[in-house]
Design goal:
The protein is an alpha/beta fold and 282 residues long. The chain is built from eight helices and 15 strands. Helix 4 (129-137) links the parallel strand 6 and strand 7. Helix 7 (226-236) runs parallel beside helix 8. The protein starts with 12 loop residues before the first strand and ends with a helix.
Length: 282
C-alpha cells in the first residue's frame, strides 16, 4: 500500500489451511471454467490436487456456478448457486482442499462465503463498490481480477475499498488489457506494480489469451500462448497462477479455446515451479 496505508493489508494471505504470498511456495488456482456436474468436477479437482501436492505447490480449486457475463443469451451459464455450492462443498469436504468461485451480485457474497475459502470478483465488476463491500463483510479473503479496462495503479482504489470495508486479506489478479477490439495483451509491468500495493498478485494465464466476442457470438482464445505467458509472469514475479483446465476443452461449455487440457497441466506446472524457485533463490 501507499505510505498512508502501510501494514493495513496482510501478506501472506491465509486461504483455508494454506498461505499465499510473501515467502510462500507458488499457489495454483485452477479448475474448469464452469461447473457441469459433480463427477467431472471431482475428476479435475483430484488430478490437480495430486499434481500440486507432488510439486509442493499450494492448490485452490476454482469453478463458477454461474457465468453471468456470457457473450450470448443462449450460452450455457452453469448449474446455479445452490447446486454449485453443493458441488464445491462436497469437493472441499471429500478432498480437503480450499475452494473459490466468483460472485456477481452483493447478495451472493454471504452464501458463497459459507462454503468458499476465497471470494473472487470478476474483472468486469472490479469497480463495483457494493459488490466489494459485500465481499469484505463476509470476513473471507477476496481476490479481485483487474478490469481489462483498468491501469494496474488504479487497483489501489479497489484495495482501499476492501480495506475500508474491513477486509485486510486481498489478492489482485492480472488477466490482460483490452487492445482494440476482440484482443487482449499483457503488460508484465502490471505484476510488480500491483505487488507494490502490498498484496499477493495472481497471474490469470488462461483468460489472458482470450479473444473477447471474437468467435461468432462466443469468446475465442489461443491456448498455445498460455504457457509462454505463464512462464513470463512467474519470471517477472507473481505469487499465484490461475489456470482453467478440462479433460476435453473442445467439449467445455465455456472458454474451451483458452483452457489447458488436463493432461498438459503437469508439464507446465513443473516449468513454473523451476522458474519460481530460481527467481526466489530456492
Amino acid at each position: 500500500m501507499s505510505s498512508k496505508g502501510e501494514n493495513v493489508v496482510e501478506n501472506p494471505v491465509r486461504i483455508g489451511e494454506l498461505e499465499c504470498g510473501q515467502g510462500q511456495p507458488l499457489t495454483v488456482i485452477a479448475g474448469p471454467c464452469v461447473l457441469e456436474n459433480q463427477a467431472l468436477a471431482g475428476q479435475i479437482a483430484q488430478h490437480l490436487k495430486s499434481t500440486c501436492q507432488s510439486l509442493n505447490l499450494r492448490f485452490i480449486f476454482k469453478a463458477s456456478f454461474d457465468k453471468a457475463n456470457r457473450t450470448s443469451l443462449d450460452s450455457y451459464r452453469g448449474v446455479g448457486l445452490e447446486s454449485g455450492l453443493s458441488v464445491l462443498a462436497s469437493l472441499k469436504r471429500e478432498l480437503g482442499i480450499p475452494v473459490t468461485t466468483d460472485i456477481h451480485l452483493p447478495d451472493q457474497a454471504a452464501p458463497v462465503a459459507e462454503v468458499c475459502d476465497l471470494l473472487q470478483i470478476p474483472a468486469f465488476l472490479a469497480r463495483q463498490t457494493d459488490l466489494l463491500v459485500a465481499a469484505a463483510a463476509t470476513g473471507r479473503p477476496v481476490n479481485v481480477k483487474k478490469g481489462q479496462f483498468m491501469a494496474p495503479a488504479d487497483m489501489r482504489h479497489v484495495v482501499h475499498k476492501l480495506v475500508g470495508a474491513g477486509c485486510r486479506q486481498v489478492l489482485l489478479t492480472e488477466r490482460g488489457t483490452f487492445f482494440g477490439y476482440g484482443n487482449l495483451i499483457n503488460d508484465m509491468r502490471a505484476l510488480p506494480e500491483m505487488r507494490q500495493l502490498g498484496v499477493p498478485v495472481v497471474f490469470d494465464a488462461t483468460h489472458s489469451v482470450q479473444r473477447p466476442s471474437a468467435a461468432g457470438g462466443t469468446t475465442g482464445g489461443n491456448r498455445e500462448m498460455v504457457a509462454p505467458l505463464a512462464r513470463a509472469a512467474v519470471a517477472v514475479g507473481c505469487d499465484a497462477v490461475f489456470l482453467e483446465t478440462h479433460p476435453e476443452p473442445e467439449k467445455s461449455p465455456s472458454d474451451g479455446p483458452n483452457m489447458v487440457p488436463l493432461d498438459e497441466v503437469r508439464p507446465l506446472l513443473e516449468q513454473l515451479v523451476s522458474l519460481h524457485n530460481t527467481v526466489n533463490g530456492i
